[in-house]
Amino acid sequence: MSLEQNLDPFALADQLSNKLLIDGKLTPALSGKSFPVVNPATGAVIAHAADGVAADVDLAVQSAAKAQKSWAKLHPRERGRLVQECGRLLNTHVEEIAKLVALETGKALRTESRVEAGVLADVFVFFGGLGSELKGESVPFKTDSITITQREPIGVVGAIIPWNVPLLLMALKIAPAMVAGNTVVVKSAEEAPLAVLRVAQIMNQVLPPGVFNMISGDGPGAGAPLVSHPKVGKVTFTGSVETGKIVYKTAAEKLIPVTLELGGKSPMIVMADADIDRAVAGAITGMRFTRQGQSCTAASRMFVHAAIHDEFVSKLKAKVDEMVMGDPLDEKTDIGSIISPEQFAKVKSYIALGEAAPGATTLRCSAMPTDPALAKGLFIQPVIFTGIPNDHRVCKEEIFGPVTAVVKFTDYEDVIAQANDTEYGLAASIWTKDLKTALDATQRLEAGLVQVNQNLVVQPNMSYGGVKQSGLGKEASLESMLEHFTHKKTIILNLG
Fold first, then answer.
1. Pick from 269, 274, 313, 345: CA 20 to 30 A from residue 197's CA?
2. Which run of H or of E encompasses 26?
3. Which of 104, 191, 261, 398 is catalytic?
């Protein structure tokens, strides 16, 4: 029987307090310990999350390992059917999930959280339809033998997800993993465990016990034991470069495959012939202002041709000024709050660096909320910097906040070099009406995702992943299911 919807996010948060999901059941951490979950828009504690540690991780992994044998024996299309059913069931809970995400992350309900909850369901439906694509090959080898390959699941997958888009990024990891025949243990971000737990609870109405387990806790206490657990055969991680390297080193000790989606400092190049109004709209989408800039693909470096620079900046500021900052659960709100005090302080420090740069101009946009109930909220006005060179820290380092730098350029060759002058390589975009320029830029920009005259967010069936320090492997596509969640076995039948 399906769970009843609960459209009161505060009541739902309380209901989910101090719970993990292991072997199909909600359960407290073995130690009974928990940690507070805070609404970043008000500073109020809304729930307590179970503080999982190595013993809890072991229970979850053992449950997943036990379930994986029978799950893998199901026909791939049957696994796909169950995963699709999860998507359809989640689609009936979009509103409650969206409100819970808004409450715990500070992301605005109308512009961000409701969208994410809807795409979450779509990802499971999409991957569920790919069960029949787990195909092998016929290999010409010898005339007296038949040689084939077949795709087999890896086993137990450990998935570690971030707080900025917890539901979508979780779905992109676990949906292909489960369809491919693996079982999963998800470790949620400390700042955003509630909606992930609710999704796990809903999906476990459909899935056999142990196929999908969820642990909350911090990195050293829960994340590290998950990566190092001997029965985890694959790790997929989204987060910082520093933590990603630690995950990679630990997995290397076990010689297991890893997918890493790490940081970004994405360039957006606006040529002199670009449609300015379209580029401005794309800059607002690309910078993810409605997500407070908390996105690894954020267009936080905008290179704009000198001929249109001033007009572009003026129009961009005017559009961001129209956006409303406020209570994430209010339908009028466009922009919510920063996720945590630590992230708030980090963003503030980068703004101070930019303000101190010689020749810099600081444009603060929108307006702080005036509601007294939000006085303790972690709100930061979006900032547009001009006059800061590309070698400044504001242009070099990932801020993960509503801060972008607009850099003036005149020479095409120079701007391509500047765009590529970064340790990251996740996303990039070029804005021009000239087809030759567009095609040339798509070939030369060093990024895993390059878009022309648009800045779309990640979509199902669109291969997504970075190069350089932005990570390893791809997500969101059939390719990600086949290459990252199965291994290929070669079988030779000697007919002689």
1. 345
2. strand 25-27
3. 261
